[in-house]
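Here is a tokenized protein:
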Amino acid sequence: ISSSKEDRFGRENFAASVAEALVKVPNGQSITVALYGSWGSGKTSIINMSIDYINKKFGEGVIVVKFNPWIFSSTESLHLAFFSALASQLGTKLDHGKHDIAKLLERYGKLTGSLSDAVGMFFPQIGTPAKVLSTIGKSFSTGTDEKADIDATRNKVNELLAKSGKRVVVVIDDIDRLDSDEIHQIFKLVKNVAHFKNVSYLLSFDQEVVTRALSTRYPLGSKTGTNFIDKIVQLPLYVPEVDQSLL
């Protein structure tokens, strides 16, 4: 469903609470909210109702960016597509500095993407040792200059977001449809790379599926997968069960 008018499961108030949690964040802080639920439990419908609530109550004071990660074929294209989507939406909907922030986000995505490739050396899908060393060399050939460039670009993005006075809500649904590498990449983006001021994230996924996917990357299994999620998500929410009488 796309709005609360179609809600027959009594989840309208829950969707409104999700929306309020995403928007009413003090002092320009960032927050990551997770919506947990099994496949087919109604996560996307709740998201649609939350967005509908945000649009009606907060209007142009909040910019909603929906990013669908599972249409991209690799972690590299996913990374670049994320910042391209963010740049496109903010470049259209911000009142001031929209062209500047679009260019900065595109640049930031490319800069952090090159470092992300270097970090991939720890994972077998990167390829041969020669390819790993080549990637490392290219990514860090500029030494601290590239790190300084990333920090400077990030600071400019934060400055423009703060000046805009608007809250940005980034919605990433269907994370549990991705493979383990792509799931890991999404969480890395949210935690380290795209942690901007005035930006809220709503991540929607089946907790068991994602935990299992993350656990394959770590020696301690599912416990580490759960801990990994807990370090990123500040507010975990669960799709409420449907009242039996309504059902």
User: Anything to note?
Assistant: The first strand starts at residue 31 and ends at 36. The beta strands are 31-36, 62-67, 167-172, 199-205, 235-238. The radius of gyration is 19 Å. The chain has a mean pLDDT of 84.
